[in-house]
Amino acid sequence: MRPLTLSLRRIALVLAATLPASTACRNGSSSTSAADGTDTVGDDATAGTGNTTATSGGTVDDTGTGGSFDFQPAPGGLRKLLAREYRSTVERLLGPEAAGAAAPPTDVPQEGFDAVGAAILPLDGVVIETYETSARAVAKAAVANRARLTEIAPCVAGSPDAGCYTEVAETLGRMAFRRPLDDEEISRYAAVGEHARDWAEGDFFAGLEFEIAAFLMSPSFLYLVEIGESDPEGGYRKLGANEVATRLSIFLLGRGPDQELLDRAAAGDLDTSEQIRSVAEDLIGSPRARTALAGFFDEYLRVRNLRTTSKNAELFPTYSVDLAEDMRQETLALVNDVIWTRDADYRELFTADYTFVNDRLAQHYKIPSPGSGDVFTKVNWPADQHRAGVLSQAGFLTFQSSSLRNSPTKRGRFVQQSVLCNQIPPPPPEVVPVLPEVPEDATLREVLDMHKDVEGCATCHGSTDPVGFAFEYYDAIGAFRPQENGRDIDASGAISGLGEWNDAVELAALLGVDPRTSMCLINNLIRGQLGHKETPGELDAIIALDAKFGEADFRMQRLLVEFTASPLFNLVDEPK
Amino acid sequence: MRKFTLSRRTVLRGMAGGATITVGLPILEAMLNRHGDAFAGGEPLPLRWVTYYWADGINIARFEPAQVGQNWALSELMAPLAPVKNYINIITGLRNRCEYLMTHHEGMTVFNGYSYVPGGGLNSDAGGPTIDQRIADAIAETKMTTVRAIHTQVSKRESTDGDGGTTVTALSHRGTPGNLTPQIPQTNPREVWNTLFSNFMPEVDDRSERVNVLDAVRADVAKLKSRLGTIDTQRLDAHLTGLSELQTKITALPPACQLPGMPDETNSDVGGVEPMTSVLDAFANLIAYAFACDVTRVATVLFKKFVSATVFDEIGASEQHHSASHISPDDLNYRAGIEYSMEKLSQFLQVLQSTEEVTGGNLLDSTIVFASTDCSTGQSHSINRQPIILAGHGRNYLVNPGIHVQATPWDGDDLDPSAAGNTSDVLLACLQAFDPGANSVGGGAPESTTPFSAVVA
């Protein structure tokens, strides 16, 4: 490990800023040094010697900091294609019918993100078999519907001979593996086609089916290979041009690179940060970039889980699969509006005084129906519902509840862990929580407030529940309720380092100006898109990128572009 | 794989899930020796294993039987096991010796004998291979079944508290400490059917070409490996293992067995309710078929994950089972949920019991089912006195009829109950049924080198 020059305070600031002192908890010690959490990142980021060159050498000359900069990238290695990336890549390679036949295994998230699981977990036998089944189905559909294939490998039109297997290996194989195949690989894959053609008594397309299936079964297709090239001057490994092309395409478009991008890589157009930034600017102009980013927010904000979120049917008779899908679309519509339509400050995701509803959702919110049927329409939140942003939308409120009742603990935990990136310690093991008797007419807030006085409960609940109480106006499916058990709702609260609020609107306003909110988004992009949890070695680069984000008025399109020019994106450590 | 040529007339009949099932027999009497207790070639008759896990503990007072030894009676919460009671050995009072405590995660040591690897927050990774995988390794020494092991999960709900890491991801972990592949459980009975049986019913016989594809792909794995570090090299080794086991499946001949049709059950919620009884029934029947046809000899059943959002809607629960566990051991929802968990275990065991074998007896006679949970008292998630139910005697390896063995009497404390010994000793005793030479299970404080002999016949 390269020695780090970062102060503990700065690490703690990012990782665990506002938690109350938690010495009773294991794994909680890192939070104590920053318990006040009142610092902003700016003072450290601008201090120092003025050395703006990354210690890793290479082409990364663009840290954006005015201060000392020390950086250790995360290890390189393999990251499995996510299921959604697999489908999109297959569509780009082989067309929509083939994509429709794709049935990759379900991703297994770790640290809250599929990509982290995809970078860590080995694949078991069932997963390998599922990939084979999917590869065969895709290949069959691709050969039956050859329009896209013909664009990539024109020889498959007409009456192809055995040489066409070689052409397919060179062209389709290059897109599938995201790099040119070497001669041995070309002949090996062409041989698969020929072998199967002979088995099928000369049927070229039967042979082609197995050749295509073989590409889709190869680890060179199934895993993103991010190893880089070692720096002759001893710095960290710099991703090669094909690897950069792949990472750019996966990061911005959610699928493997197409021919044009691989051609640009081959032409030397992806060698410097400036070039990468320029290509990234081109790529985010694609409609596909919106779909890919929606995939990230679908996962990050957990709204994709709504389709498998159930509610007790007696308590919540209006809840349905369709309503749940509406909730998901509402959240994604706000993401699309803030980031793409308006190119506005990202933090308006939390503070927006409007939302998007269709008729069914308007009825759910008890607001006037837009009369647009299933089509989502922009409407302002009624002031008396105390709502603002995604955290007041039914999707978040529904998923972060149990099937029976709302959960201030879950809601508050999401804000702490996923919006502010504060780590919440597990309950101390030696304490057995025994809550006092609960009065019949107690509100949920009163019941949970009892945790404050119980040793062992307060360490975690003290950081989650007060935040979650801001959402007490909303039940387990996000519907508005002015009262609970005949008593008026109390949505007020306060947390050291964050501030005081009277309702979800005021909490959202605090989140909207908190310096951790933007930095936490970067952390979540690292987890959800690159596939690892941010490391202390990456902190300086995260701070520098966050500074660029701020300079760009927190517009996420700019963040995505600047991210690709960051050493976070272009450098890796020795493969894991 | 042995090529069987028996006629479809040779069938066995059994009752499963209330319906008569007919399973073709892979074992002809003519293939057996004259005592009927081994194949004529000397290969022993198949011995099977099931790990069964139910979550969030028990109420000690109402769960542990009052009597020990042979003349024990089912307790209030074990009462649903009455139809299979003779096949039950129940072990109470043991201590799970996991070295860390983090709520529920430590309880899973009962299935592998290793402390978990802490992962920060409520995350942990499995510390070592689980017992089912040790047993699958032992079986593979002498017999390569078409499917090494099958892993099923009934309730689909995830942790409400954000518990994470591979301890939560899977009930079964294959490999060695530091190099483990979690075996992701399958929740859809139709997919389980695919894994077990679809390979025997191809539309076209293209096996030669599928194998050829695997060979081509294997060369890529080898090329890639040389450029990677330890973790990814291990992952690619697991990938290679998967490819070679897929090849075994592709080239396996179908068993001389009437294979079941694909089940209708998909484990989709109906009106917000998980169809748990129907899903478990489907899994039980698929596992029974797979055992009887000798497609596999190892299965795991994850009934419900710890801390999951599961509500036992089928019994009208008005609380998540995990939430109820933290109210009090005597909470009515919690007690009903434990009883329901035992009903479902009993349902599973009854399917094995009602599947007869030509060698005499039923699948519980040839299987050992290791069933346990992740704590004793749910409220404190204590790992003292985690109960272990061993169902089936594994061809008379275990005491039969079953007994109640209590490692130490209960001191009456629910939250921090008395306990003695080591739960891993039970794992070692079970492993020795499959590998008599095995001399340890697990590692660190939970390691066992002393098999729990009290339940061994």
Overall description:
Chain A is mainly α and about 575 residues long. Among the domains of chain A are: about 80-225, no CATH class; about 295-515, no CATH class. Chain A contains 27 helices and 10 strands. Chain A has helices spanning about 10-15, 40-45, 85-95, 95-100, 115-120, 125-145, 145-150, 165-175, 185-200, 205-215, 220, 240-255, 260-265, 275-285, 285-300, 320-340, 350, 360-365, 395-400, 410-420, 445-450, 460-470, 505-515, 515-530, 540-550, 555-565, 565-570, and strands at about 75-80, 225, 235-240, 355, 375-380, 485, 485-490, 495, 500, 570. In chain A, the strands form 5 sheets. Chain A has a two-stranded antiparallel ribbon with strand order 1-2. A two-stranded antiparallel ribbon of chain A has the order 3-10. A two-stranded antiparallel sheet of chain A has the order 4-5. In chain A, a hairpin with a 2-residue loop joins strand 6 and strand 7 (about 485-490). In chain A, helix 14 (about 275-285) packs antiparallel against helix 26. Residues about 1-65 of chain A have low confidence and may be disordered. In chain B, strands 7-10-3-11-12-4-13 form a 7-stranded mixed β-sheet, sandwiched between helices. Chain B has a two-stranded antiparallel ribbon with strand order 1-2. Chain B has a two-stranded antiparallel ribbon with strand order 5-6. Chain B is built from 11 helices and 13 strands. Chain B has about 450 residues and is of the alpha/beta class. The radius of gyration of chain B is 21 Å and the shape is globular. Chain B folds into 2 domains: about 15-20 and about 45-190 and about 255-455, 3-Layer(aba) Sandwich (Alkaline Phosphatase, subunit A), CATH 3.40.720.10; about 200-255. In chain B, helix 4 (about 190-195) runs parallel beside helix 7 and helix 5 packs antiparallel against helix 6 (about 230-250). Chain B is about 30% helix and about 15% strand. At the A-B interface, helix 6, helix 9, helix 10 and helix 20 of A face strand 9, helix 5 and helix 6 of B.
